[in-house]
């Protein structure tokens, strides 16, 4: 069976039809990834694509190919310890690292709904980010039970800050790293936020500041050192660089990142700020800074169905626009979302108020209805008005502004 078909359904149907074995090819499946029920009691074999094609071609020629299976042996899974291809990658709307951390999400043993024919429980395996989220939720529950005095922010910081980094894997794919519940349970220091968002470095001398709060969640005094290595021409400075914390105490730091030299035309730099307490493991806060000029045209394709209309709640004038951008850059596809889109009503250079404000907008087509009422709901008097659009980038900077005039009859 070629991998373009549903392997699970085909395997189950073939087993019910009485076949002696099922041979799959052309699909890369993790061990146990089919999620077959116990009614499939025949061998299921997956062949490499080239071998499968040769065998299928021979069958179509009415030949009788033979598939020989050697003695099984244990081999290292070359993809073990890597981020699964179905896991999301990238940055959050505010430029912060996403995800916070990663957890196992391939071939997770789990119970299945229902029961077998003999009444015994059904079991199977699952793959996906939903399974990984369940693993993290379970780890958070265990950590909360082990350390009930901690706040939710502390639990989150311990889980992310003590995660194990994967080699040769970007922080935009792994966040702080792989969940390590043992290290989290022994953590003595918590931080808020758990990752840093400095924004977009646009030119030589660019700088940005992030405030960070530390909290001692141990029963001893801590002397904490801030280790903030830079990368890609970025220098990170902490004020102060050392902090003394009594049990349950907290302190606030100012982290400043500054660019020396011209930024690359695209791409990003990434790293982690380490909070190191004597006699304890470090707490890690990943960061990413993107390079290049801020988006200059975040509003386009503006259209108004009628430039002159009477107020109406049932047949409003329709204002349409495209918000954000999707650009093809040398480093790959770049999505430029909006942190906020404000729609203001003006008349004779006087702002009458805010009609609506949309937040966290991905690049999309936006449609708004103009009923001919002001922000307080009152019907507008006849005359000329303006709609002012202000689009704010997630990387900061001045907004993109557009003005559309219309007349109330």
Write the layout of secondary structure elements.
Layout: H1 7-16, E1 22-25, E2 44-47, H2 49-60, E3 108-115, E4 121-126, H3 129-146, H4 152-161, H5 171-174, H6 181-185, E5 189-192, E6 196-201, E7 207-216, E8 222-227, E9 234-239, E10 242-245, E11 250-259, E12 268-277, E13 283-291, E14 299-304, E15 308-309, E16 317-323, E17 325-329, E18 332-336, E19 338-347, E20 350-361, E21 364-370, E22 383-393, E23 400-408
Parallel strand pairs: 1-2, 6-13, 15-23
Antiparallel strand pairs: 3-4, 5-7, 7-11, 8-10, 8-12, 9-11, 12-13, 14-16, 16-21, 17-18, 19-20, 19-22, 22-23
What is this entry, summarized?
The protein is mostly beta strands.
Write out key terms for the chains shown.
five-stranded mixed sheet; Immunoglobulin-like; 409 residues; extended; single chain; mainly beta
Describe the structure.
This protein is mainly beta and 409 residues long. It folds into 3 domains: 7-60, no CATH class; 126-291, Sandwich (Immunoglobulin-like); 299-408, Immunoglobulin-like (Sandwich). 14% of the residues lie in helices and 39% in strands. It is built from 6 helices and 23 strands. The chain has helices at residues 7-16, 49-60, 129-146, 152-161, 171-174, 181-185, and strands spanning 22-25, 44-47, 108-115, 121-126, 189-192, 196-201, 207-216, 222-227, 234-239, 242-245, 250-259, 268-277, 283-291, 299-304, 308-309, 317-323, 325-329, 332-336, 338-347, 350-361, 364-370, 383-393, 400-408. It has a 5-stranded mixed beta sheet with strand order 6-13-12-8-10, with helices on one face. It has a 5-stranded mixed beta sheet with strand order 15-23-22-19-20, with no helix packed on it. A 4-stranded antiparallel beta sheet has the order 5-7-11-9. It is extended and about 85 Å long. It starts with 6 loop residues before the first helix and ends with a strand. The mean pLDDT is 86.
């Amino acid at each position: 069976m070629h991998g373009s078909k549903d392997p699970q359904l085909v395997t189950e149907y073939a087993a019910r039809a009485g076949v002696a074995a099922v041979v799959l090819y052309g699909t890369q499946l993790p061990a146990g990834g089919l999620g077959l029920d116990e009614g499939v009691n025949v061998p299921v074999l997956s062949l490499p694509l080239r071998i499968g094609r040769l065998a299928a071609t021979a069958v179509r020629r009415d030949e009788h190919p033979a598939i020989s299976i050697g003695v099984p042996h244990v081999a290292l899974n070359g993809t073990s310890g890597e981020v699964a291809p179905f896991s999301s990658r990238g940055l959050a709307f505010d430029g912060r690292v996403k995800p916070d951390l990663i957890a196992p999400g391939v071939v997770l043993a789990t119970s299945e709904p229902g029961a077998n024919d003999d009444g015994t429980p059904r079991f199977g395996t699952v793959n996906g980010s939903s399974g990984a989220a369940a693993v993290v939720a379970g780890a958070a529950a265990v950590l909360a039970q082990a350390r009930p005095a901690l706040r939710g922010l502390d639990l989150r910081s311990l889980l992310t800050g003590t995660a194990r980094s994967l080699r040769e894997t970007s922080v935009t794919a792994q966040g702080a790293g792989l969940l390590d519940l043992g290290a989290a349970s022994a953590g003595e220091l918590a931080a808020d936020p758990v990752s840093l968002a400095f924004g977009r470095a646009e030119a030589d001398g660019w700088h940005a500041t992030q405030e960070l709060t530390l909290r001692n969640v141990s029963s001893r005094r801590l002397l904490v050192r801030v280790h903030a290595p830079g990368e890609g021409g970025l220098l990170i400075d902490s004020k102060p660089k050392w902090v003394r914390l009594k049990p349950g105490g907290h302190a606030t730091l100012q982290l400043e990142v500054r660019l020396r030299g011209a930024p690359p035309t695209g791409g990003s730099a990434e790293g982690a700020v380490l909070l190191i307490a004597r006699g304890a493991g470090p707490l890690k806060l990943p960061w990413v800074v993107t390079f290049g000029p801020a988006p200059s045209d975040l509003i386009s394709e503006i259209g108004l169905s009628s430039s002159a209309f009477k107020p109406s709640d049932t047949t409003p004038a329709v204002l349409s626009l495209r918000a954000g951008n999707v650009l093809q850059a040398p480093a790959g596809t770049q999505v430029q979302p909006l942190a906020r889109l404000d729609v203001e009503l003006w008349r004779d250079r006087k702002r009458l108020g805010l009609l609506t404000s949309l937040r966290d907008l991905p690049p999309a087509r936006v449609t708004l209805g103009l009923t001919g009422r002001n922000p307080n709901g009152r019907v507008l008097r006849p005359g000329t008005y303006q709609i002012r659009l202000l689009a704010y980038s997630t990387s900061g900077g001045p907004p993109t502004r557009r003005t559309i005039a219309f007349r109330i009859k």
